[in-house]
Amino acid sequence: xxxxxxxxxxxxxxxxxxxxxxxxxxxxxxxxxxxxxxxxxxxxxxxxxxxxxxxxxxxxxxxxxxxxxxxxxxxxxxxxxxxxxxxxxxxxxxxxxxxxxxxxxxxxxx
Length: 110
Ligand SMILES: N=c1c2ncn([C@@H]3O[C@H](COP(=O)(O)OP(=O)(O)OP(=O)(O)O)[C@@H](O)[C@H]3O)c2ncn1[C@@H]1O[C@H](COP(=O)(O)O)[C@@H](O)[C@H]1O
Hints:
- The protein has 110 residues and is mostly helical.
- It contains six helices and no strands.
């Protein structure tokens, strides 16, 4: 699972030097952070709507598709800000060893 994130992170990094019209990710970088954040917002809403539909119909295929779009655009956002997905996995690993109250107390301050 983490191998997929690593390979995708490598591709996202490589797209930083690419021409705007050469790929979708390159075009997002050229449009800038606001466009990337707009896409994260759009995909969040689409994921929520797909979850509501999945709960009503029992069919989760659209929910999986939209969640992949949301994860992907979140990775583009992190890459645009110089962050690797490993940082998020490290944070989840850190929380894994903490109980609810301890986790809140131990949250790193920015
Ligand atoms: N995982 C993805 C991925 N998921 C979703 N998308 C794109 O995200 C867009 C989301 O759909 P929308 O309809 O919301 O977007 P749109 O209408 O194209 O764009 P807007 O003009 O509305 O912003 C689609 O164009 C999808 O093709 C992705 N594009 C690329 N990847 C990965 O990123 C890698 C690099 O992609 P390129 O930079 O395109 O080579 C690829 O090899 C893939 O592994």
